[in-house]
């Protein structure tokens, strides 16, 4: 059986780093600078939230960091790999093998069971599931008795737990979470956020989450603030109150 001790990360330093990151949409007079000269590091084995007013660039930043969107200039490193230098095939392989994703919409395949949805990335890569690790994470997430259920037979919270398990199964270097509690009520959202925090604290997982919710952000170790495409500060050990105060200063 996989234990927390066995899962303890030895890697130190940055899970993700960006330097001189710029991203523009449109051209000429209609051009919008979504990101402007961003320099940022995300520590390994920590839970970081990205926040800012609507249109601040937080989702664009996450999509660029995860290799889901291209940049106009600058570099992004995941571990020791500059993903801005990869071709489409190599970038697809990196996202499959080294990154986990959790989305607001769950993105489960309706015809597959919970277990099949969790193991789908491994199956697509023609890999072998580590059954000890599978048993550990599904047990930790309270899914053991739901593995044969299809998504329509699961509650929203259970579906999001399946998505979390899917993201954890491949032991990715980093998990990107895009408004992961946006479709959940406050009780179930707190449950999922608690699980994300535990996966960071107890499993050594690196997590980068975009959220607009100060309560969700308070589960993170650190909050990075954006405004008009530039970094506008950060908070360590955030609380809902300190996040709200920081956002108020940004006019959010």
From TrEMBL:
Keywords: ATP-binding, Nucleotide-binding, Transport. One of its GO terms (molecular function) is ATP binding. It comes from the Bacteria. The keyword Transport applies. Residues 16-247 form the ABC transporter domain. Residues 1-11 have a biased composition (Basic and acidic residues). Gene3D superfamilies: P-loop containing nucleotide triphosphate hydrolases. InterPro entries: AAA+_ATPase (IPR003593), ABC_transporter-like_ATP-bd (IPR003439), ABC_transporter-like_CS (IPR017871), ABC_transpr_LolD-like (IPR015854), MacB-like_ATP-bd (IPR017911), P-loop_NTPase (IPR027417). Residues 1-20 are annotated as: Disordered. Pfam families: ABC_tran (PF00005). The keyword rRNA-binding does not apply. This is ABC transport system ATP-binding protein.
């Amino acid at each position: 059986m996989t234990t927390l001790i066995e899962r303890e990360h030895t890697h130190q330093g940055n899970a993700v780093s960006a330097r001189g990151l710029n991203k523009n949409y449109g051209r000429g007079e209609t051009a919008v600078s979504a990101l402007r000269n961003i320099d940022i590091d995300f520590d390994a084995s920590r839970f970081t939230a990205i926040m800012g007013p609507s249109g601040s660039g937080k989702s664009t930043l996450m999509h660029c960091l995860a290799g889901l969107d291209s940049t106009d200039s600058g570099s992004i490193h995941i571990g020791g790999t500059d993903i801005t230098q990869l071709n489409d095939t190599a970038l697809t392989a990196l996202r499959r093998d080294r990154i986990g994703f959790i989305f607001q919409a769950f993105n489960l395949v309706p015809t597959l069971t919970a277990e099949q949805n969790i193991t789908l990335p491994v199956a697509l890569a023609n890999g072998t599931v580590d059954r000890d690790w599978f048993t550990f994470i599904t047990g930790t997430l309270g899914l053991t008795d739901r593995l044969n259920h299809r998504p329509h037979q699961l509650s929203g919270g259970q579906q999001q737990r399946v998505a979390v398990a899917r993201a954890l199964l491949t032991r990715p270097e980093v998990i990107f979470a895009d408004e992961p509690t946006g479709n959940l009520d406050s009780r179930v959202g707190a449950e999922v956020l608690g699980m994300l925090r535990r996966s960071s604290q107890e499993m050594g997982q690196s997590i980068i989450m975009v959220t607009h919710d100060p309560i969700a952000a308070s589960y993170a170790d650190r909050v990075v603030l954006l405004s008009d495409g530039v970094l506008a500060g950060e908070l360590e050990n955030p609380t809902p109150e300190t996040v709200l105060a920081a956002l108020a200063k940004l006019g959010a």
